[in-house]
Hints:
This protein is an alpha/beta fold. The chain has one domain (2-117): Rossmann fold (3-Layer(aba) Sandwich). It has helices spanning 12-19, 37-47, 82-98, and strands at 2-5, 23-26, 50-53, 72-75, 104-108, 113-117. The radius of gyration is 13 Å and the shape is globular. It starts with a strand and ends with a strand.
Amino acid sequence: MKFKVDENLPADVAGILREGGHDASTVIEQGLGGAPDAAIMEVCRREGRALVTLDLGFSGIRAYPPAAGPGCLVVRLARQDRGSVLCAIRSVLPLLKKRTVSGAIRVIDEWRVRIREAG
């Protein structure tokens, strides 16, 4: 799977995804730091990359309908420090091998992954 890691996450998230066999780049690597959300999502659509972000705004199905894009992983943790985020990403790697993110918004928290699909 292909992912774009938002600027609000450690760049190490892309490394963990790559170690898991995925193609991952970051918003910063692409020079999109500070770009509006809509512009970032458009780049993700063009590149066929699911966005990985802490930004809850991307979980809005009206603003970003799941069927209209490559999908999104929204990380929602009580503690959003680097260690907690990296642990959460590592914990979902097995899920990402089994199921695509495309056409869905997956919200990751400490206990589960919630799926919001088009429909």
